[in-house]
Design a protein that fits this description.
Largest sheet: 7 strands, parallel
Structural class: alpha+beta
Shape: elongated
Number of strands: 37
Helix content: 10-25%
Length: 691
């Protein structure tokens, strides 16, 4: 097809029964060679070729939404504010997930055409309020009726909704599974390391402090306008719990953000305050191509600046393996609509009554394009459009569309996603994401890693169930659009959490159950592990920290680094040995009690940077006199028997000695620590009567 809009129709053919097809493709395959999509068994009544009879794209409404300097959702709000429609503009804004503040203003981001001050002046001229600034962006509150005037200002390049993060959660054991407990035993807890957790809310963090899950001396930094503990905002506290559990000696910062402007501010704070590791379990959509590039204020540019300034950024890969579709635009039946599979032009999703979903489309024509595609969501049975994104792409706008919709029909039913060519001469690669769900009918797991996880400046984390190392079905898969392997490592998930409750199970054929799940939980395990390594190696750069963790990872997938597990399972391995002060020697305290003809001997070794390694019964050339070792299992030990070997972090033990006959008792035993071994004694002559 050539340029311009053709009027296309929706027709419905119903196929009854469940369609069960494989849903996985090889994560190592290149995107362009990924093959067709796989169909997911997500609905019992599927719509084939879902264009309903009588459906026509509403050309007048589409033209009114296509404004060169105003995104399509804000154009709808502006249209309502101008009396072009029968809805209140604030109701229109709320229905499309636009922030409404003080029941009068909408939150926007203004991209400056030149110096940022020009955009600030434009906001003020429109009667708006500047909330935050970062590089070329100004976050502001503006009345709906002033949107057109703001966009028309010469100092403004574009007015849009703020880019927002989406949590990568699905719903205590990781410390042992990752090997962190062994590092704790050797004295490595992340001491003198500053770690920041970036999230959109930390609800319940005070409760977690009171329960000992978070430190009392943490620092909460508010970049999110006083919304640090919103309703349902426990995600950030749960992420921070795991970081602290992995590295209890760190100085912890909780950085609350809600837009890409605030993300940039949080990064600048981290730079200014010596934070060396940032952990973010969130995804950003439609902010860049997916190859690590982006505008100067994009999340990708933010993480690149952090890395350049000595900060290791650890980020989730995303939970989108079953909620991503990727393919070159394909109009095999020449009606300007993309064919997802064969002649099926709709990618169906089931939505329960009241369920909200957000859908994002980008195509490979970055950074700006004149190839114009539109995104629609319709009721499958009727073809009625319930949401759309029809932004203008005339050469200065990014190749993206996005919408959010809440099923307000009152019933659970199927909806269909359509991609329409409005005005384009090429067939670019399309990436379609849906969050937080449901899963798509047609899925392409390859290439499903989200931003900024695709960036080479990020250590990107996949999810495995902590008990059996099974990769979680939702965990996003590489490669990136430019062919790089992602994720970088796989972290433990489905773990017990103070915020989300106890872990339940790691089934062999399905995702982990209970507790804190998702790549959101896997990521802080890696961030905490990085803090342990940084504490042991203060001079390590971000690249060295990442290399250390990847180098010790346990292989799980194909040989070498792969697009499923990265370098493998997070496994810290043996901790380095701290230097030990051997002079003076550690103190040995012995307490004895007599009961039932045997003596209980309790040994405690104390000393800085030291710990007890082992105790042996008897000493070379110094056998016990009139005594036997009484082992816990009821057996009698002999001279030279190792009676105890230290476990992690243990500095004391108790054992028993039994008198053989009347008379004096002398029991030599050998204590060993990291400075060597020495002999000490228990017992004594006549005073030992009754021993």
């Amino acid at each position: 097809m050539g340029q311009g809009r053709s009027r296309w129709r929706l027709t419905i053919a119903l196929v009854l029964g469940m369609l069960a097809l494989p849903i996985w493709a090889d994560g190592g395959a290149a995107r362009a060679a990924a093959g067709g999509p796989t169909a997911a068994p997500v609905m019992q009544q599927r719509q084939r070729d879902e264009r309903a009879p009588g459906f026509r794209a509403p050309d007048v409404a589409i033209r009114e939404q296509k404004q060169a300097k105003l995104d399509s959702t804000l154009a709808l709000v502006s249209r309502a504010a101008g009396g072009r429609g029968d809805q209140n503009p604030l109701d229109v804004a709320r229905s499309r997930e636009v922030d409404v503040v003080h029941n009068a203003l909408v939150r926007v981001v203004v991209e400056s055409a030149g110096a940022r001050q020009q955009a600030i002046n434009a906001v003020r001229a429109a009667g708006g309020v500047v909330e935050a600034e970062y590089r070329d962006l100004v976050q502001a509150l503006v009345a709906p009726q002033q949107l057109d005037a703001l966009a028309a200002d010469g100092g403004v390049a574009y007015v849009r909704q703020p880019a927002r993060p989406f949590h990568d959660a699905v719903g205590g054991e990781g410390v042992g599974a990752s090997g962190a407990s062994g590092w704790h035993a050797e004295g490595f807890t992340g001491q003198n390391v500053k770690v920041g957790v970036i999230d959109a809310g930390f609800t319940g963090y005070q409760t977690r402090q009171a329960q000992g899950d978070l430190p009392n001396n943490l620092t909460l930094v508010d970049f999110c306008g006083g919304q640090t503990t919103p309703a349902g905002g426990e995600h950030g506290a749960a992420v921070a719990e795991i970081v602290y559990e992995m590295a209890p000696g760190i100085q912890l910062y909780l950085l609350c953000i809600g837009t890409e402007v605030q993300l940039g501010q949080a990064k600048d704070y981290a730079k200014a305050n010596g934070i060396s590791i940032l952990v973010m379990s969130m995804s950003w959509f439609n902010t860049s191509r997916g190859d690590g590039t982006g505008s100067a204020s994009s999340p990708n540019a933010t993480v690149a600046d952090a890395r350049a300034n000595g900060i290791l950024w650890v980020n989730s890969a995303g939970n989108r393996a079953q909620q991503h579709y990727g393919a070159f635009f394909n109009d095999s039946d020449s009606n300007d609509a993309h064919n997802f599979n064969g002649t099926d032009e709709g990618n169906t999703i089931p939505l329960a009554a009241g369920q909200t979903t957000c859908i994002f489309l980008r195509w490979d024509a970055w950074p700006t394009t004149n190839q114009d595609f539109d995104l629609y969501l319709t009721v499958s049975q009727t073809g009625t459009i319930v949401a759309s994104s029809v932004g203008d792409q005339t050469g200065t706008q990014p190749p993206t569309e996005g919408l959010c919709y809440t099923n307000s029909t009152g019933v659970s039913q199927n909806f269909a996603i359509f991609i329409d060519r409005f005005s384009a001469t090429t067939n670019p690669y399309m990436d379609l994401f849906i969050t937080p769900g449901p899963n798509l009918e047609y899925q392409v797991p390859t290439g499903s890693v989200t931003e900024p996880g695709t960036s080479p400046n990020v250590m990107t984390v996949a999810a495995i169930c902590w008990q059996n190392d099974r990769r979680e079905d939702y965990s996003s898969i590489g490669p990136t659009i430019d062919g790089r392997i992602k994720p970088d490592i796989a972290g433990q998930t489905a773990v017990s959490s103070g915020s989300f409750g106890p872990w339940s199970s790691c089934p062999g054929g399905s995702n982990g159950q209970g507790g804190f799940n998702g790549t959101s939980a896997a990521t802080p395990h890696v961030g905490g592990a990085a803090a342990l390594v940084k504490g042991a190696n203060p001079s390590f750069t971000p690249a060295q920290l990442q290399s250390f963790l990847e180098g010790r990872a346990t292989e799980l997938g194909p040989a070498g680094k792969d697009n499923l597990f990265g370098s493998g399972k997070l496994q810290l391995g043996a901790a380095p040995l701290l230097p030990v002060a051997c002079s003076p020697r550690p103190a040995v305290t012995i307490q004895t009690t007599v009961s039932g003809g045997r003596q209980s001997v309790h040994v405690t070794v104390t000393g800085a940077n030291n710990r007890l390694l082992s105790i042996s019964f008897g000493a070379p050339g110094r056998p016990p006199v009139n005594a036997l070792l009484d082992l816990p299992d009821g057996s009698i030990g002999v001279t030279g028997t190792p009676i105890w070997t230290a476990g992690p972090g243990v500095t004391q033990t108790t054992f028993y000695v039994r008198r053989q006959a009347a008379g004096p008792v002398t029991v030599p035993f050998v204590v060993a620590d990291r400075c060597g071994a020495w002999t000490t004694f228990v017992g004594g002559g006549a005073s030992a009567t009754g021993f």
